[in-house]
Amino acid sequence: MSNFIVADRKTDYLLPPSVDDWLNQDHLARFIVEVVDQLDLSKLTRQYAGRGSKAHHPATLLAILIYGYATGIFSSRRLERATYDSVAFRYIAAGTHPDHDTLAAFRRRFLDELSGLFVQVLEIAEEMKLLKLGNVCLDGTKIKANASRHSALSHGHIEKLELQLKAEVQELLAQAEQADQADVPDGVSLPEEIKRREDRLAAMAAAKAKIAARAEERYQREKAEYDEKMARRAAQEAATDKKLGGTPPKAPAPGPLDKDQINLTDEESRIMPVAGGGFEQAYNAQAAVDAPTMLVVATGVTQAPNDKEQVEPMLATLKAQAEVLGPVQALLTDTGYFSDKNLKACDAAGIDALIAVARDEHHPDWRERHSEPPPLPAGATRAQAMSHRLKTKAGRALYALRKQTVEPVFGIIKSVLGFRQFSLRGLKKVTGEWTLVCMAWNLKRMAVLRP
Q: Mean pLDDT across the stretch 186-212?
């Protein structure tokens, strides 16, 4: 006779089961609950008026969201279902089952408070001796917006559609005025058809106005850059008493271009080039990652497809957090961040910048890796000095930290956690959601690093 363990599902427990017995002591869900219980959630709890039925505590809802994002569950409906199906979620919720509307409303309501909680988690990492800021690596990655790029309309296409719809409206109005409507197909309501086209025309007019406003902002920005370049050229010509060669900068043109687009689903997202080729409706998510621990120490989201303008906002964030987390010693970034203005900003902030001037060769001569470059000539520019430093042994060793720090974090967030698309819409909301993603990553990483 076989000796099997009998699966008895009928016998009741002699004593009520305890949720504390459901998980092993080093489980990630336990760690997240322990950390969330240490956070100051007073800004969240004060917003509950205490009227009506009892609400789920913010600590419970926050822990559910963080564990969900740390394990690849982002949908509020899937989170609700997990409180029934998953032992870990049952432990976090202590046997309660917040519905998906509650979870979704909580996530939307407290997006602004997430940045403060993000820093509190990093403070706990410092207290656990897991984080000591030094070298920080900055990079960006494109995250798909909660919108299809096929929902985007360009300014040129809108103008073509307007002509077509206006002609159709005139045709329908003329048909409606005729006494004999024998040519109208059965089931067609002319007033409804006219209203549908007029509504589309109104929506396209609003879209054109927003595109025009964006174009004006772009023109003012490009005009300021153009004026600065022309003033610099004029100063150089005056100093050398000689006309500069080369093609002078081209003045920007005002007004929207035919290719300027707006997305009707999430108008704050932008069409961006993505790795591997092609374009997606996306946001550019930024993360500054601590080199020794791979903890994200600062976050941001931008609508710009390139990273050139993201150094100064990140420096401001790191400066604001310096009183709590300590100062950053060095900032390592790839060539997408390089500009003379960014080097000046790092110098002004007292941060040692190591920004790639150009892309490295994939297969450089082996002698370059074991030799020092010739001495830097006198009067070298900032770009030449940075290029020279990156060729030194010390510079190469320090810059090598960048690829092995921030890029694996993005790879794990996208491929292991599965976070490739925002659930929310609008720049402010996706900024909060990206902070939540990075907070979940930090807690997952801290659980691994803890003694």
A: 80
